[in-house]
Amino acid sequence: MTKALRVICLVLLAILLAVGGLTLYKINKPTEGENTSDPSTESTPDPENTAEPAPEQTSTPEPYGEADPVFTDVNSYLVVANKKHRLPEGYEPADLVNPNVETRNGDWQMRQEAAAAMENMFAAAAQDGVSLVLGSGYRSEELQAYLYNGYVADRGQEYADTISSRPGYSDHQTGLAADFCGNSDPSTDLSFSFENTVEGEWLRDHAHEYGFIMRYPKDKQDITGYAYEPWHFRYIGVDYATKIYNRDVFCSFEEYFGIEGGDYAD
Ligand SMILES: [Zn+2]
C-alpha cells in the first residue's frame, strides 16, 4: 500500500467514526417533553467526540401580562388595542393591502398577512357552501374620530363609548381586525343574530384555523370592554388563535394573555 493510499484510508476511517459517534449521540439524546428526571437513563455524549453537541432545546415562555413588550409592539400580531391600551398617536400599518374577497359597505384594507389568511378562509368557507363577506377592515384614527364624534354628537359620550371606540383605541386601527357578514341574511349584519347564521356558526368553529379569534366573545364585556360581537374577528396567527379556541370557544384575548381590559380609565 502506498503512503498516499494509507492516508486516504485513515481519513475515511476517521470520518466514519465521527459520523457513527454523532448518529449514536442523536439516537440516545432525550427528546423534548420526555421525562428525563432519572439521571441514570440520560446519555452523555462521548467526551472523545469533538462534534459540538446540539444546544439544549428550551421552549420560549408564552407571552403573558402587561410587561410583555409584544402587546405594545405594533409590528407584533399580538399588539393590543382596547379601552386600556391606546395605539401610538396616528399609527398606520405600513403593509395594508386589499384582500381579494367580497366586501360590503366599502373597499376594506387589511395588513398583508391577515389579508392572505382571510382569502384562504373565505375560499375554505366557500368549499363548505358558506358565503362570507368582509364588512369592515382597517380604519384610520381619522376615520375612527369622525365616526366616534358623530355618535357623541347624536347620543352623548356615554352611549358612544358603548358602541364605538375612541380614536386610537380601536382594534380596527391595527389593520388586523375585521367585521364579517354573510350572504345568507344581510339583515343580521353587525347584530347579535349573526351568531345563528351559517356564516356566524362557520366562523365560530373555523376562524382559528386561519389565525382569527372572536375578539369580543359572549358575556365578556367586563373583560374586553365590549358587548358580544359575533361578527368581529381579529388576526393573531394560527398558533395562538388555536390555543385560545381550544381553551374555550368564548375565551377572550385579555383572559388568555393576562392583559388589562374593561372600560376606559376615565
Ligand atoms: Zn369591528
Overview of the structural elements:
The protein is an alpha+beta fold. The chain folds into two domains: 1-59, no CATH class; 69-257, 2-Layer Sandwich (Muramoyl-pentapeptide Carboxypeptidase, domain 2), CATH 3.30.1380.10. The protein has helices at 3-28, 112-127, 141-155, 157-163, 198-206, 221-224, 238-247, 253-257; strands at residues 96-97, 110-111, 132-136, 177-182, 212-214, 232-235. A four-stranded antiparallel β-sheet has the order 3-4-6-5. The chain has a two-stranded antiparallel sheet with strand order 1-2. Helix 3 (141-155) crosses helix 4 (157-163). The radius of gyration is 26 Å and the shape is globular. The structure holds zinc ion.
Which ligands, by name, code or SMILES, are bound? zinc ion
So what's the overall shape?
globular
CATH architecture of the largest domain: 2-Layer Sandwich
| Count of all domains | 2
Largest sheet: 4 strands, antiparallel
Estimate what percentage of residues fall within beta strands: 5-15%
Number of helices: 8
Number of strands: 6
* Unreliably modeled segments: 20-42
Structural class: alpha+beta
What is the arithmetic mean of pLDDT?
87
Helix content: 25-40%
Q: Would you list the SSEs in sequence order as H and E?
A: HEEHEHHEHEHEHH
Q: Tell me the name of the CATH class of the largest domain.
A: Alpha Beta
* Spatial arrangement of strands, main beta sheet: 3-4-6-5
CATH T-level topology of the largest domain: Muramoyl-pentapeptide Carboxypeptidase, domain 2
Indicate the radius of gyration in whole angstroms: 26 Å
What's the N-to-C terminus distance? Answer: 91 Å
